[in-house]
Amino acid sequence: MSLIVVIVGTPLLIRLVHRLHYGQYIRQDGPQSHLVKRGTATMGGVAIIAAIVLGWAASALYRYLHSGTVPSWSALLVIFAMVSMGALGFIDDFAKVSKHQNLGLSVGAKFAGQFIFATLYAVLALIVPTRSGFPSAQAGMSFIERPFFDFAFAGRTLAIVIFVVWVNFLMSAWTNAFNLADGLDGLASGSSMIAFAGYSFIAFWENYHLKGAGHGGYSYAVSDPMDLTIIAACAAVACFGFLWFNSNPATIFMGDTGSLALGGLFAALSVATHTELLAAIIGGLFVIETCSDVIQVGCFKLTHRRVFKMAPIHHHFELLGWSETKVVVRFWMIEFMFVLVGLMTFYADWAGRSGLLL
Predict the structure, then answer these.
(1) How crowded is residue 216: how many other Cβ atoms within 10 Å of its Cβ?
(2) pLDDT for residue 37
(3) pTM of the full predicted structure?
(4) CA separation (Å) from 127 to 2, 130, 171?
C-alpha cells in the first residue's frame, strides 16, 4: 500500500506543484551546478507521509478485521510525531514558495513548533496506558533497552520534565540532521530508506523477543513493537518509491515537509524501541552531516577559517570534483555500513544478555 501510494501520488503531486508554480528556490552560495534545479517541484514529503500513514492504516484495518486488534497508542504516538513535524515542515516550505525565496519560518517559530509537538509526544508517551502493559516510552536514556541513566531518581514529576527536555533534544537533533542531508538528489531519501529498513529489523526482533512471548533469550519490555515494525517498514518502502522520482536528476524534492517528518519519525522510533543512543549509529550518516555543519560554523566563528570547502559535508566533496551521483551513492554505502554496524551491535547486546557469548 505504501509503495502504491507513493508511486501513484508523487506524479500527481508534481503536476499540482507545477500548476501552482511552487518550485524550489536554490541557495546562491552553493555549488553553481545546482542552479539548474531552480523551479523543481518541492514538498514531496506530502507523498511520503501519506504513503506511510496509509500503509500503516491498511495494516491496522487488516488486523482489526481479522483479529479485532485495534491500533496501539505506541503506533499512534509515533505517527503523531511524524505528521506533526511534517506539518511544521510543510508550513516552512509553503512560506518559502509563497515568498519566492529560500527563507521560510524563522528560527524562533520553527523551534517553538518543535517544542510544542515534541513535548506533547513525550508527555503522552509516558502517561497514556497501552494494551501491552508496557509504556510507550521509558523515562531515561538508553543505548539498548535498559536505561543507563534513569530519570526516576528525581521523582515522577521532575522525571517527566527531564524526559521532555531529552525528547526535545532528540527531535530537534534528528529533524535538523535529516534536513541537512536533504541537499543532493536522492541523498536523504535513499539514506532514510536504509536507516528505516534497519529499524524495521530491530523492532521485529523486539517483537519476537517480547517479555511474556515465551521465546528464549533476553526479552524486551517494549510496547507493541509489531506496530513499530510495520511503520518502519512503510517508511523504508515510501522512501524507496519516492527515490524513483527523487534520484538524479530529481523531478521533485521532499522539502522540509519530508525531511522534518522523517527526522521526527526516526527520533520517535528510537524512543519507542528504547534505542535512543544506538540510533546515533544506525543514523550515522546523518550524524556526520550534522557534525560537519557544526564544525564548520564553530571553527569559522572562532578562527574565521573554514574546515570544509562548504558544509554540510556532501557539498565539500562536490567542490572537490566528485559528481553529485558519486557523492550520493558513496554516502548511501556509508549509511548502509552504519546500519550493519548498528544491527550487529544490537544483536551482540541481545546475545550477551542471553548468555550466548559466555
Answers:
(1) 8
(2) 62
(3) 0.94
(4) 31, 9, 19
